[in-house]
Amino acid sequence: MKPILTTELEMTIPFHDVDSMEITWHGNYLRYFEIARCQLLDLINYNYRQMRDSGYAWPIVDVNIKYVKPSTFEQKIKVIASLVEWENRMRINYQIRDVLTNERLTKGYTIQAAVDAQTQELCFITPKVFQDKILSLIEAKKL
What we know:
Blueprint: E1 5-12, H1 28-44, H2 48-53, E2 56-57, E3 60-67, E4 76-85, E5 90-98, E6 104-112, E7 115-116, H3 128-142
Antiparallel strand pairs: 1-4, 2-7, 3-6, 4-5, 5-6
């Protein structure tokens, strides 16, 4: 799937994220995905506050992580998030890579679906407010 929009951030694995063997605890990767996802949503101009204000929640309905190689204490990593689906659901693919070698350490994805905040009904088509933001991005990339 060709990404519609990609962002990346760099970070250093902190001590409080590792176990006694100085390997990153597996659950922290979801947090790293979340940090990158928030940065991506800010680029779209549709972050979690804007979602709420537009009348929709976007819960994660599916998540997948493939641990390729562990990250360790003080390792510099980059987290890459790419929006690859948006018409019926939001799918974001992730990669975590070593900054120095560019070796892939982890990959995964999250899928979020829009839910009408008033009715709690799942939306099977992406709400117009989000469609408009994505279409604006696509048009801007063509220029």
